């Protein structure tokens, strides 16, 4: 299929996705491209639309499970310098969607700008965090957003202000678009205090989460007024294993890749966990991770 004719951006074919995810699972993308800026991106999504090619936007790959069969699709990753920028304006911080949260938090801290500390330790990009409305410790990133620049799948750029964006627990209307960047409203604070708060959040995270083996963070969303991890734990499922995928013994809402786990192993384990939680508590767990197949 010669859908790339006339495009300047290099499009890789049959690109491995496994190494681009924190789960270290998955096959290849039929097409893979890293546009250098919004103009290249616009041409790319328009060409894909014209040829009815499904498009997936990959951030840091920390909340996805990619099928072992790979994807007959175009996967786009926004990691050029243009999408990695960050620029303060008063107490606002404008940043491209490809920047890693860790880098953004460091930059804000160095400028004495506070607000992002609670996200310390989340291994995602700004775009992924906005699409998922990432959060923890009772806060979420959308609370900080002043405005967001997005591109629709016709290649048109839009500026959305906070009021124009619907969002909820681990979901945001921004995921209907390719997110280009956002302006975050922060507050001034002493740099040493920001640094200490970051360290405290990191310590809390390390005391509960399992970082020993590849994973994708929490697999299921917390049901209202409950904790998915606690329900799974109460079913006695910590350590339960299918193939090379295992429910973490430390955090029951984490599934670990114990080495060459397949996407099938993970899906079977997720189904088994859901079944047992439903049977015991009558609660249907909803996946938090995105399954790309
Ligand atoms: C150890 C560990 C701990 C974690 N802890 C937390 C936590 O405490 N809280 C939390 O909320 N999450 C947590 N996560 C999950 C994950 O890190 C976050 O959801 C993160 O924000 C996802 O960002 P990403 O860049 O990796 O997105 P990806 O995993 O690459 O993508 C996730 C979704 O976002 C979409 N997306 C990515 N970039 C864009 C873009 N530019 N435009 C449009 N859509 C886009 C993708 O298409 C996909 O649907 C954790 C994960 C791990 C591995």
Structure commentary:
This protein has helices at residues 38-50, 101-110, 126-132, 191-208, 228-234, 263-281; strands spanning 11-16, 28-33, 55-58, 64-66, 71-77, 86-89, 92-96, 113-114, 135-136, 139-140, 145-151, 157-161, 167-168, 171-172, 178-185, 187-188, 241-242, 245-247, 255-257, 290-292. The chain is an alpha+beta fold and 293 residues long. The protein has 3 domains: 11-77, Uridine Diphospho-n-acetylenolpyruvylglucosamine Reductase, domain 2, CATH 3.30.43.10; 82-207, Uridine Diphospho-n-acetylenolpyruvylglucosamine Reductase, domain 3, CATH 3.30.465; 228-292, Alpha-Beta Complex (Uridine Diphospho-n-acetylenolpyruvylglucosamine Reductase, domain 1), CATH 3.90.78. Strand 13 and strand 14 form a beta hairpin. The protein binds flavin-adenine dinucleotide. Flavin-adenine dinucleotide is lined by residues 22, 56-64, 78, 97, 122-125, 127-129, 131-132, 134-136, 175, 178-179, 209, 215-217, 290.
Average predicted local confidence, pLDDT: 97
Second-tier CATH architecture of the largest domain:
2-Layer Sandwich
Report the major sheet: 5 strands, antiparallel
Ions and ligands: flavin-adenine dinucleotide
Q: What is this structure, in a nutshell?
A:
It is built from 6 helices and 20 strands.
